[in-house]
Amino acid sequence: MVVLVGSLGVYANVNNPAIADGGATPEIPVTNTSGPAEIELARHLKSSGAVMYGAYWCSHCYDQKMMFGKEAAKQFTYVECSPEGPGTAQVSTCQAKGIQGYPTWEINGEMVSGALPLNELADRTGYTGSREFKN
User: Fold this and answer.
1) How are beta strands 51-54 and 104-107 bridged, if at all?
2) DSSP output for the chain
3) Which domain holds residue 117?
4) 117-125: average pLDDT
5) What digits encode the pLDDT tens for the residues 36-46?
6) Residue 75 lies in a domain
7) Most buried residue, 44, 61, 117, 129, by most Cβ within 10 Å?
8) 99 in a structural domain
9) What is the tens place of the pLDDT at every residue in 79-98?
């Protein structure tokens, strides 16, 4: 009986490479499409040095990315804080920055917690482009 249970434990995840290899948990895909204003704002955030710290399992982080849409969400700097997250998690960076909740935005050296409306992100970073956000 012990051998049977032990064998099941060893081979249970053999057909699930992510689990069998200790791989990362998949991120929930962003499904909204981005408009030109969201993409322009996301590029501005990146060029201004703004950073979003989050975790793949965080519903507020997902909401923030949905505000941008899938194309724009790939444009700004995002740091994954969960060690199980997809991609390369930067847990030590998040700890060094004192991140206590998700999402947290770092804008001009200031830490701002919560999913922020796109207009607020634009205001905080001096964005002067179009604000005809579709999401």
Assistant:
1) antiparallel
2) -HHHHHHHHHHTTTT-HHHHTTPPPPPPPP-SPPPHHHHHHHHHHHHHT-EEEE-TT-HHHHHHHHHH-HHHHTTSEEEE--TTSSS---HHHHHHTT--SSSEEEETTEEEESPPPHHHHHHHHT--S------
3) 25-125
4) 98
5) 999 999 999 99
6) yes
7) 61
8) yes
9) 999 999 988 899 999 999 99
